[in-house]
Amino acid sequence: MLNTFTVSKDRTCKNNLHMDKIDRTIINTLQEGFPICSSPYKKVAEGLRISEQELLDRLKVLLESGILSRFGPMYHAEHMGGALTLAAVKAPEQNYDNIADMINSFPEVAHNYAREHALNMWFVLATETPEQIQPIIQTIENKTGLKVYNMPKIQEYFVGLKLEA
Amino acid sequence: MIDPIDLQLIVAIQEGLPIVARPYKIIAGQLDLEEQEIIERLSRLKQQGLIKRLGVIVKHRRLGYQSNAMVVFDMPDKLVKQKGEQISQLAFINLCYLRPRRGELWPYNLFCMIHGKSRELVLQQLTQLIDSCALNDYPYDILFSTRCFKQRGAIYSIDK
């Protein structure tokens, strides 16, 4: 049985740090993919015209500094049997931070952003199975006293989250 | 159902690949398998789409992408596919989805994301989006994010 949950620790997104040209090239190249062969770093390093050791060292620094959140696989939640949805609430300003804490306390909440609109808090729910989405929405409504606007994906036209470093 | 050994592999590498010369050999050692088998299984998982991507996952704000905007349109149902595909061609569009409308407060059904380095730049890109995809006639809104409370991918575990 496969479980899926998200780490409940809140993470504040911080500002950017110094990187040189080689770091940027490494990030841009490795956003495109990583070889599956016995010496993958060596293969990437050759393409970048740096040594394998330099690539390993720089990657470690980029990970430690937090510019990279991870180096590894990005799984397809639905293919793994799980479900995702985008949801929003209209949180009263005077109680905004409390509501954010309440919503973030659910391990199923993967992302949560304040946005400028009457619907001012937008979050992504990730559950182990599609059947678990509705109950968690109900629980969030009960806990916050707010209506949750659930907007699951009907069709995907494009996903290509690659950002030029 | 996912093959039990694939599951172990999925769980073993989810936090990241080892940053050493032979990463797949290290994983093979942890799972008591051969390096070649890890390579074959990962290649297959990638081909099947369970692994969407293998590589670096960046923190967009730390890369200087401070402005994250959700741009939404109320697009007639019969046009939404065509417009969604057209919008997806633009280089600065990161995601594009069809989602349900939710009454008067939320009349929008076409969602796209722009991650930009400044608000000004994102607003210019929005103008470019509207012009190049002929979206002038449709109600839209742009929702910049003002704070990020939480940002984390799913974590997988296996029931013992």
Helix content estimate of chain A: 25-40%
Oligomerization category of the chains in this entry: heterodimer
Largest interface, C-beta within 8 A: A-B, 85 and 78 residues
Q: What are the secondary-structure elements of chain A, in order, as H or E?
A: EHHHEEHEEHEE
How would you describe the shape of chain A? elongated
What composes the largest sheet of chain A? 4 strands, antiparallel
CATH class of the domain at 83-151 in chain A: Alpha Beta
The total domain count of chain B is 2
Q: What is the number of strand segments of chain A?
A: 7
Biggest sheet character of chain B: 4 strands, antiparallel
CATH topology annotation of the domain at 83-151 in chain A = Alpha-Beta Plaits
Large-scale geometry of chain B: elongated
Beginning-to-end CA distance, first to last residue of chain A? 38 Å
Number of helices of chain A: 5
Task: Please explain how this structure is put together.
The complex is a heterodimer of chains A (165) and B (160). With 165 residues, chain A is an alpha+beta fold. Chain A has five helices and seven strands; from the N terminus they run E-H-H-H-E-E-H-E-E-H-E-E. In chain A, strands 4-5-3-6 form a four-stranded antiparallel beta sheet, covered by helices on one side. In chain A, strand 4 (109-115) and strand 5 form a beta hairpin. Chain A is elongated and about 55 Å long. Chain A starts with a strand and ends in a 6-residue tail after the last strand. In chain B, helix 2 (23-31) packs across helix 3 (35-48). Chain B contains five helices and six strands. The longest helix of chain B is centred in the N-terminal third of the chain and has 14 residues, at 35-48. Chains A and B meet through strand 1, helix 1, helix 2, helix 3 and strand 2 of A and helix 1, helix 2, helix 3, strand 1 and helix 4 of B. Strand 7 of chain A pairs antiparallel with strand 3 (95-98) of chain B.
